[in-house]
């Protein structure tokens, strides 16, 4: 009981926003089409290989007047990779510090997006051509209130149309269209892509961007694989326009987690034209694209505030015009003011407007200057620097508390003790 109270008080005091955003209700009654883009990292956006854009379609989508693009959006996953990103999105809770919460706590109670929007007349679906027990999705999706999972068995998979982990993204989207046309609207549908998965193997016939040239095959092959996914997403948009589903839908494209690990830093530093990948760069490489496309909106822009996957649930609920009054969320509506102002990574690192905190050191974001006393810096710090150190410590304490409280909720299965009917009443 005390643990729950502590969580609720913390959220009320430190997380909850008092004002609604201008986009509150902008997607009310519309379908949500959410594309979970496997291993898509921020650094490929508006970038080139061999003089060619890596993601021509996404680059164009980002510039569209109906698109909001978040270019300082961080993935916050732990060992559960894609499943952790799904967990963050559906719940606005942190994944666990070890193991995958989809496996370890797949039978818990949650108050996920799908459950909340059910009362607003939405049904929810996941499309992903992989074995349904992978990441324990079959069990976890029931706990998250997802109405139907179109898994591997829903698709026609053959030797010709599969690579690596399964069905290629182009036939995946193509074969998903009839299902999407057959389900009742409004729906919340999530598409989890698969082709752009480590080690990024591709059939020659699918390569339309030549690999990069470096000492890392992983990085080299990452670019053509990303390009293939970009083309698959473009084809999907074209088909959705043909079917008429486009106009009545709001689109989200999100990179789920990094694809190129620190093992490839030498090659990455060459690609990014840097002498080395510093600890700050390493944190910034955890940025993934987050794109919200609202057909007919006309007010799109690039938003550079520090944001992350923890913020997706409150943002989607707000777009749908749903007030989850008593929900427990550690994130904020990305379109509203008074956000927390920092993003916590699962390992305790964080990024705020002013700071990047990593490996126990705090740096000024922008200049990269290390602040405070450390082994690397032995001179006496000035008074103003003391203020910075205190400000950084303050966020650090909040991050530690948040991660602990989120863990408590999961380990104690504390959602069992909350009556979310209050939320439902508020929306009737
Ligand atoms: C597996 C797919 C990829 O079904 O979602 O998972 P990942 O290995 O990226 O966590």
TrEMBL record:
Substrate binds at residue 197. One of its GO terms (cellular component) is plasma membrane. Keywords: Cell membrane, Manganese, Membrane, Metal-binding, Transmembrane, Transmembrane helix. GO terms for molecular function: metal ion binding. The keyword DNA-binding does not apply. Mn(2+) binds at residues 38, 82, 256-257. This is Sulfatase N-terminal domain-containing protein. The lineage of its organism: Bacteria, Bacillati, Bacillota, Bacilli, Bacillales. The chain holds residues 216 to 643 of 643 of the full protein.
